[in-house]
Design a protein that fits this description.
1525 residues; alpha/beta; Rossmann fold; 6-stranded mixed beta sheet; 55 helices; 32 strands; 51% helix; globular; disordered N terminus; disordered C terminus; ABCG_dom; transmembrane; transmembrane helix
Length: 1525
């Protein structure tokens, strides 16, 4: 026998899954080829043998190989041909044996009619076996597994006030107190042998995920009891996880791939990193990688996607089902013998889910892998593919054994399985007290609680049989047997490349890992050209702007300040572009974590690959930016200084990239990383040495410069520019015509009396304390920083590459936690989980009937056609569809993928905005009234709600704005309580909607979505789009059962449903079935046991229906028959004619009925139910409530202003009266204004969240006006921005200038408040028309950078080129800096420091006063400090700050004008935001009068995918408050 994880393919055991798979593959191929009578005889299918043994048939069906897509067999045939030819070339170099067989046996020649795929696969495995390539296989045994976790079943919603009083409640945040661990899993036992599939069944909260994680070693946040035993063919769990990571893999439900890589590139990367060193003779590594990838792609139906991007929610790529198969193929290429899949079919239709499980079955059969799968809504076809099942009930195991005996076990226990219910649904239903049914005579015998079920299981013969199976397995593979471990280690070492540590879990060497990761990084760059070119173009634009600002700077002392500013911008902008890498690293972290768990590569090799690929990218960016800026700004035009400048800027970019990457690597969340980066950026800017020169740095913060890489780079650039150059003096003191001797001096720091030039080295030594001798020392320090931070980055990435998961909890407002949940807090098992395994107990039919208004109106539609244009080509989405919905009926709308189900629903609900719709729609035979949309409810597939509102508040909001104004608030609230009771939501009515994981679960969200529409009291019809999508079978059953009660109580319901189970399908009365192109296949009654529907298809040529089948699946199969045009059959049928007759009959019968809108309420004829003032009130209250309940967002504002203000205040502390002190005050204002951008970036994502909810759900429902939406969202920011401005004022103003007179203090305060309000309105101006915060962020950065550049601080207006002076005039920061600098500086007397004083000698025999008297009396701005001296005259260039302010056109009378202009800008932003929203998102295009030339596909994509996916993403971002800084 080979090692426990190996399989020799040369002589497979006829009973092994491998042998069965090979036989079935050969059978299928032979069936397709139909080559001879012998082959036909060989492939006789036992499923059709008629032996009556259903169990055997089901066993055979599990091993059947069926291509997922048509043509996959041909692809495999082609690949086999290529491989055969390739091997034949090398056969002469190989030993005789299998290679000779390839060339001589026609059964192994793919071009021969006698080709046998079974023998080819056997031979391929023999080639691998003889080459030393072993396929690892594993069995898993677990005994007495007990798992505990910490945490409560519920949480409290935070508010702004609670954040401040938390310190008074230490028990809520201290790590001790009443926090007993919860007992999640109780005494679990089980065994999975190699090649087996295990299905894990249980309701949400029963512990399915915990079981899978425990098996695979993903126990972060969990506690496994010491007595628990888990081993893999005798190898203990700890040893397995440590040394053989990648052999046991846990896969979450979300597919994690690089979206811009193609499927082929993704899978070839996986194949390359797990490719064994000992390959078949003559085959190169690359050839085998490509061949193996193509074979795997063909097996999993992905051959057609080789060059298609994988994609994600925002990047167009393969479909969701194909992306799931990419995950499976990747895991297959990883060669992991044990895999766990956690709810991987959520959101997939049943056909795709079946393909997924078939793929797992195929992997198990071919590779002998073992998989455990937690799955929802498993059809019978899916369930039959599994070998074993485990059923969980509130954290307890109540069954583990073969799937073919599971149903009988529970029936023997006393439970009844309804007709046509799938086995999977039946097994799960026994854990639901409201769904399970006791067999007659067993009422007092069946177990009821989880403990009783567990006791019954442990006393059963099946439990004893399980332990006997475990005992026998452990006899074959004793626990702790070193031989098993050594066999596995030997098999692994044989596959490993040279120079790989023997105990390393990786297959290829680190050099190979880096190589493959570098290639992958290159492909990501090539495939994502937009992301690659955007920063390049941005750099060009910024370089042109900054360079042009300093264009024409004189090469004289007058240009010193401008040269310094240009160099400051050069190094700073290049360095700070790296901050964007934080988000990209967090985006790829889950993928890297997954690949680490697969043992593909060390995470640090991916980090190194990213840095390597940055070299050419950053070089290109540096070239375009530095060349443009350097020469436009008029910097030193010499080769040596230019290349040194380029080198330093380029290296500093890498240093800062390493710094920000390290920030991302050492943190756990993006919000933490951005917070660190925000503080870092502030420190870098202030302590570079330009804003605050070294002599003026305060000792408490001056040390920061030593750890600031940009400080060293800036010194090099300044020294490089000024070294060895004597600059012509631009202004002398005194400015006499005849200057001689040392009786004059240049009015510039560092000047020497009597010299007409200023030496650059002297200037930088005096002004900055810089020296050219430090250049190469600083370069060495930069290299040391680069190496040090890269090392920290690599270590952090390697060690911090795993995340912990937390349990789902309900969140309540403080004081509103239900008593039942508070009492359950002390319980130690998972049944205390508020997410509940329990399905909601809904009201009975009588309660529903009493709540709903009486309905008599009938909605009909006739010959509905919907045409659109996509890329100029006409396309018909609906083709003459007819039908009706009566009160009291539940009508299902079904069809194949792309049939137009949701499109028809949108058309009928009047929710389409583009395209051409023809046909008729009536209510009681009359055209639709203006209030039709408000008389209907539309339950969307995506559950979009405001995450800070409670369930009750969400329902009240809908009732208040969608019920007419004639209904009082009290009556509306009473109706809401009735809806809560009707939906059975009493227990969580005060629960906050929250985000996934901290809020309502999937079923509760769906109930709320339905409740919001019912609260609107629809008088006509309720539309539902895929109400069971993403739900488990019990939740789906509960939803459909509730819809049935609604219909029985008189409500008219039209519901799209993808592929219901037989039990769900029986709930519907009528069916409208469409096929691709919106063509009708059937409309009519379903009938008891679906007989009316089935008879129609059978009578028109369909195959006979098997009574054990699911009617829905049968119908989809029949309608998909390409040999039968069922649409033509329908058009020519009597049933179709009866539909038209029925519509006319309905019209004649209902014409005597009054319109639904009886005219008693004038508002019913308007667009909205409530007047505009009431809309504004309700929306504003809700938004204010939302902000109050987002303490992390509000506290982030306050913390940002407080910490930034204090840092700036004490960095520029107590600015003195010198020239530099005056400059420091201005630079402090410059630094304060930089906070503006961060505030704007905080506001925008929150607005997108609100807008997504409004545009996707509330605007189409005519809940309230877009004007009310905008007004509320703009105004809500103002109170918090005012407080933020007050904090900023107090923290920065007083440390810088101290206490001034009241008017000045008041002006600075008002200016700070105006800046903060302007920031919020500017954010709304930028975001209202744009799709997402990322796009708007780029525009904000550009506009803000320009406003900041042209505000007069870094370049005075008289120094600006003429074509930029308009930017100085329109920049709001010009007036903000002007107004606030007047308050802080006007009237200040200047006292020059020694370095700023101009010192020269008067002519012999003259005093300084006499010598300078003509100069000063002639209007010189400065002052003479020692008039009586005869030597060393001391002249200060300025007397008062007013002179400097006047030079930049800032005058005292303008201070309140500037404040008023700030409010003018605020008003412009508000009006501009309103206009932009109307123009881009409300205004109907003039071209669309009747017809639309715009692609509806683009619109549907935006609303149906981008908006709802963005809504999910932003919810997640808001949860962590990623925009702290």
């Amino acid at each position: 026998m080979d090692g426990p994880f190996t399989m020799a393919a040369s002589q497979p055991d006829s009973g092994t899954p491998m042998a069965i798979a090979e036989e079935r593959v050969a059978q299928n191929h032979a069936i397709n080829e139909k080559t001879s009578d012998d082959s036909k005889e060989e492939v006789e299918d036992p499923l059709e043998s008629g032996d009556g043994d259903s169990m055997l048939s089901r066993k055979d069906s599990r091993t059947d190989y069926e291509p997922i897509n048509v043509g996959d067999d041909e692809v495999l045939h082609r690949l086999a041909t290529q491989m055969s030819r390739r091997e034949s070339v090398y056969s002469k170099h190989s030993k005789p044996g299998h290679d000779d067989l390839i060339t001589t046996n026609p059964a192994l020649d793919p071009s021969s009619p006698q080709f046998d795929l079974k023998k080819y696969i056997q031979n391929a495995f023999q080639v691998l076996d003889e080459s030393g390539v072993k396929l690892k296989r594993a069995g898993v045994v677990f005994k007495d597994v007990n798992v505990r976790g910490s945490g409560s079943a519920w949480g409290l919603q935070g508010t702004v006030s609670s954040m401040f009083i938390t310190v008074m409640r230490p028990r809520e945040w201290l790590p001790f107190g009443n926090r007993n661990p919860r007992h999640i899993l109780h005494d679990f036992d089980g065994i999975m042998k190699a090649g087996e599939l295990l299905v894990v069944l249980g309701r949400p909260g029963s512990g399915c995920s915990t079981l899978l994680k425990t098996i695979c070693g993903e126990t972060a946040g969990l506690e496994l009891d010491e007595k628990s035993i888990i081993h893999f063919n005798g190898i203990e769990r700890e040893q397995m996880i440590k040394e053989f990571r990648g052999e046991v893999v846990y896969n979450q439900e979300v597919d994690k791939h690089f979206p811009h890589l193609t499927v082929g590139e993704t899978l070839e990367h996986a194949a390359a990193l797990r490719m064994a060193q000992n390959r078949p003779s003559g085959l190169s590594r690359n050839e085998l990688i490509k061949h193996l990838t193509q074979v795997i792609m063909a097996v999993y139906g992905l051959s057609h996607t080789y060059n298609t991007k994988v994609g994600n929610d925002f990047v167009r790529g393969v479909s969701g089902g194909e992306r799931k198969r990419v995950s499976i193929a990747e895991m297959a290429l990883a060669g992991s013998p044990v895999a766990a899949w956690d709810n991987s079919t959520r959101g997939l239709d049943s056909a795709t889910a079946l393909s997924f499980v078939k793929s797992l079955r195929l992997t198990a059969n071919i590779l002998g892998s073992t998989s455990a799968v937690a799955i929802y809504q498993a059809s019978q076809a899916i369930f039959d593919l599994f070998d074993k099942a485990v059923v969980l009930y509130e954290g307890r195991e109540i069954y583990f054994g073969p799937t073919n005996t599971a149903k009988q076990y529970f029936e023997n226990q006393g439970w009844y399985c309804p007709r046509r219910q799938t086995t999977g649904d039946f097994l799960t239903s026994v854990t639901n007290p409201s769904e399970r049914t006791v067999r007659e005579g067993f009422e007092n015998k069946v177990p009821r609680t989880a403990e009783e079920f567990e006791k019954y299981w442990k006393e059963s013969p099946e439990y004893a049989k399980l332990h006997e199976e475990i005992r026998k397995h452990e006899e074959d593979y004793p626990v702790g047997n070193k031989a098993q471990l050594e066999d596995l280690r030997k098999a692994k070492n044989e596959q490993q490349a040279h120079h790989v540590r023997p105990k390393s879990p990786y297959v290829v060497s680190t050099i190979m890992q880096v190589r493959y990761n570098v290639y992958r990084a290159w492909r990501r760059i090539v495939n994502d050209k937009a992301s690659t070119l955007t920063p390049l173009i941005g750099n060009i634009v910024m370089a042109l702007i900054i360079g042009s600002v300093y264009f024409g700077t004189p090469n004289a002392t007058a240009g010193f300040q401008s040269k310094g500013a240009a160099l400051f911008f050069a190094v700073l902008l290049n360095a700070l572009t790296a901050i964007a890498e934080i988000n990209s690293l967090y985006a790829q972290r889950p993928i890297v974590e997954k690949h680490k768990s697969y043992a593909f590569y060390h995470p640090w090799t991916e980090a190194l690959a990213g840095m390597v690929m940055d070299i050419p990218l950053k070089f290109a960016q540096a070239v375009v930016f530095n060349i443009i800026l350097y020469f436009l700004a008029g910097l030193r035009k010499e080769a040596g200084p230019f290349f040194l400048f380029f080198l330093i800027v380029y290296i500093s970019t890498f240093v800062m990239s390493a710094v920000f990457r390290t920030m991302a690597a050492v943190t756990k969340t993006v919000s933490q990383a951005m917070a660190l980066a925000g503080v870092l950026v502030l420190a870098i800017v202030v302590y570079t040495g330009f804003v605050v020169p070294i002599p003026f740095m305060h000792p408490w913060f001056s040390w920061i410069r030593w750890i600031n890489p940009v400080f060293y780079a800036f010194e090099i650039l300044v020294a490089n520019e000024f070294h060895g150059v004597d600059f012509t003096c631009s202004q002398f003191v005194p400015a006499y015509a005849d200057l001689s001797g040392d009786a004059f001096v240049c009015s510039q720091t560092g000047a020497i009396a009597g010299q007409r030039t200023v030496n650059g080295d002297t200037y930088i030594a005096v002004a900055y304390n810089y020296s050219y001798s430090h250049v190469w020392r600083n370069f060495g320090i930069l290299i040391a920083f680069l190496i040090g931070f890269m090392a920290m980055y690599f270590v952090a990435v390697e060690l911090n590459s795993s995340t912990t998961s937390t349990a789902e909890v309900l969140v309540f407002r403080r004081g509103h936690v239900p008593k039942a949940l508070q009492d359950s807090k002390s319980k130690d098992d998972e049944k205390g989980d508020a997410q509940g395994a329990g399905t909601t107990q809904m009201a009975d039919k009588d309660t529903v009937k009493n709540v709903l208004p009486e309905q008599k109106d009938i909605f009909t539609w006739r010959d509905v056609v919907y045409d659109i244009e996509i890329k100029g080509e006409p396309r018909r989405l609906l083709d003459h569809v007819n039908g009706w919905v009566r009160p009291g009926t539940l009508t299902a709308l079904m069809g194949t993928s792309g049939a137009g189900k949701t499109t028809l629903l949108d058309v009928l609900a009047q929710r389409t905005t583009m395209g051409v719709i023809t046909g008729d729609m009536f209510v009681n035979g009359k055209p639709l009234a203006a209030g039709f949309q408000r008389n209907t409810g539309y339950v969307q597939q995506q559950d979009l709600h405001l995450d800070t509102s409670t369930v009750r508040e969400s329902l009240r909001f809908s009732a208040m704005l969608r019920q007419p104004k004639t209904v009082s608030r009290k009556e509306k609230y009473e109706y809401v309580e009735s809806v809560i009771e009707m939906l059975g939501m009493e227990e969580f009515a005060e629960a906050v909607v929250g985000v996934p994981g901290e809020g309502l679960n999937v079923e509760q969200r769906k109930l709320l979505t339905i409740g919001v529409e019912l609260a609107a009291k629809p008088k006509l019809l309720l539309f539902l789009d895929e109400p069971t999508s993403g739900l488990d079978s019990q939740s789906s059953w509960a939803i459909c059962a509730f819809l049935r009660k609604l219909a029985d109580s008189g409500q008219a319901v039209l519901c799209t449903i993808h592929q219901p189970s037989a039990i769900l399908f029986e709930q519907f009365d009528r069916l409208l079935f469409l096929r691709k192109g919106g063509q009708t296949v059937y409309f009519g009654d379903i009938g008891k046991h679906s007989r009316v529907l089935l008879d129609y298809f059978e009578h028109n040529g369909a195959r006979k229906f098997d009574e054990d089948e699911n009617p829905a699946e049968y119908m989809l199969e029949v309608a998909g028959d390409k040999d039968h045009d069922w649409h033509e059959t329908w058009k020519n049928s009597q049933e179709a004619k009866d539909v038209l007759t029925g519509i006319e009959k309905i019209h004649s019968e209902t014409q005597h009925l009054h319109d639904n809108d009886d005219g008693s309420d004038a508002s019913m004829s308007g667009e909205f139910a409530m007047p505009f003032a009431q809309q504004v009130r309700e929306v504003t209250v809700r938004v204010f409530q939302q902000y109050w309940r987002m303490p992390s967002y509000i506290i982030a504002k306050f913390a940002l202003s407080a910490l930034s203000g204090l840092f700036i205040g004490f960095s520029f502390f107590n600015a003195d009266s010198s020239l530099q002190g005056m400059q420091i005050v201005l630079y402090s204002l410059f630094m304060v204004s930089t906070i503006f951008s961060t505030i704007v970036q905080q506001v925008m994502p929150l607005f997108v969240t609100q807008r997504s909810l409004y545009e996707v759900r509330e605007r189409p429902s005519k809940t309230y006006s877009w004007k009310a939406f905008l007004m509320a969202n703009i105004v809500v920011e103002w109170p918090y921005q005012i407080f933020t401005g007050v904090i900023l004022y107090a923290c920065f103003y007083y440390p810088v200038v101290g206490v001034q007179e009241s008017e000045r203090q008041g002006l600075v305060l008002l200016m700070c408040i105006a800046l903060m309000i302007y920031a919020s309105t500017f954010a709304h101006l930028c975001i209202v028309a744009l799709p997402d915060a990322q796009t708007a962020g780029s525009i904000v950065t550009l506009l803000f950078s320009m406003s900041l550049t042209f505000n007069g601080v870094l370049q005075s207006p008289d120094a600006l080129p003429g074509f930029w002076i308009f930017m100085y005039r329109v920049s709001p920061f010009t007036y903000w800096v002007g107004g606030i600098s007047l308050a802080m500086l006007y009237g200040r007397e200047i006292q020059c420091s020694p370095a700023e004083t101009n010192i020269f000698n008067p002519p012999s025999g003259m005093t300084c006063g006499a010598y300078l008297q003509p100069y000063i009396s002639g209007g010189a701005p400065g002052q003479l400090l020692n008039a009586d001296a005869t030597t060393q005259c001391e002249y200060c260039p300025l007397t008062s700050a007013n002179q400097f302010l006047a030079g930049v056109e800032i005058f005292w009378p303008d201070r309140w004008r500037d404040f008023g202009l700030m409010w003018a800008y605020i008003g412009f932003d508000v009006l501009g935001a309103i206009w932009l929203y109307w123009f881009f998102r409300v205004r109907k295009s003039g071209k669309s009068s009747g017809k639309s030339k715009i692609s509806v596909g683009a619109k549907v994509k935006m609303i149906g995918e981008s908006v709802r996916n963005r809504y999910k993403t932003i919810n997640k971002v808001n949860k962590g408050n990623a925009e702290v800084f």
